[in-house]
Amino acid sequence: xxxxxxxxxxxxxxxxxxxxxxxxxxxxxxxxxxxxxxxxxxxxxxxxxxxxxxxxxxxxxxxxxxxxxxxxxxxxxxxxxxxxxxxxxxxxxxxxxxxxxxxxxxxxxxxxxxxxxxxxxxxxxxxxxxxxxxxxxxxxxxxxxxxxxxxxxxxxxxxxxxxxxxxxxxxxxxxxxxxxxxxxxxxxxxxxxxxxxxxxxxxxxxxxxxxxxxxxxxxxxxxxxxxxxx
Length: 230
Ligand SMILES: *[C@@H]1O[C@H](CO)[C@@H](O)[C@H](O)[C@H]1NC(C)=O
Ligand SMILES: *[C@@H]1O[C@H](CO)[C@@H](O)[C@H](O)[C@H]1NC(C)=O
Description:
Low-confidence stretches: 198-210
Bound molecules: 2-acetamido-2-deoxy-beta-D-glucopyranose
Largest sheet: 2 strands, antiparallel
Strand content: 5-15%
Mean pLDDT: 77
Family: Belongs to the ustYa family.
Shape: flat
Radius of gyration: 22 Å
InterPro entries: UstYa-like
Number of strands: 4
Strand order of the largest sheet: 1-4
Helix content: 40-55%
Transmembrane segments: 6-24
GO biological process, one term: mycotoxin biosynthetic process
Keywords: Membrane, Transmembrane, Transmembrane helix
Order of helices and strands: HEHEEHHEHHH
């Protein structure tokens, strides 16, 4: 049996460890200026693993009367998927929203009658972007096999459970960031997209998406975050 004193010491070590980790995290969060290339790769948010059921969805079926509205509402990056970070409140797009936006574009392209070079360009970009996203996340989940002939027009496959990152936390983070940004804007009286100008006029990587459009949306207030649709 360990003595009380040893237990107290072990407890002290544990608490000291937790405190040191917490303050390290805080330092890690603030060490970026979000100017030029000085920003972290990911949002400072921890997405817990959760289990979710994957099943078919009539609402997201192809060519239904509501499909376009549902896709647009839940996935349009123009009305969400934007965060502002750092002292300049620099605008960033968030990958999950970009990916959903691409799916909405593909859904639209499949049902739309008019193909243009611009829409083909977007489809091509999205197919290639999603290819890279899927390979990048190299998801090794084991899934039940489904015959294509078993799928109904709504894309119904047997439901299964899988592990996900808690995407609700990401929606919450973006909503909170949106509110904080608009509070800042109201309090400061004005806001300029400074951080992004530095990237656009400076030596930013050529493959960075042009952010002027996102800046314009943030300035005009047309940047309401996405609803948390299922
Ligand atoms: C999509 O729906 C429209 C109107 O309901 C219909 O005219 C068209 O044939 C459908 N397209 C496909 C590919 O099913
Ligand atoms: C806050 O407002 C001032 C003018 O009052 C402006 O110069 C500054 O750029 C604003 N801050 C941001 C982050 O846009």
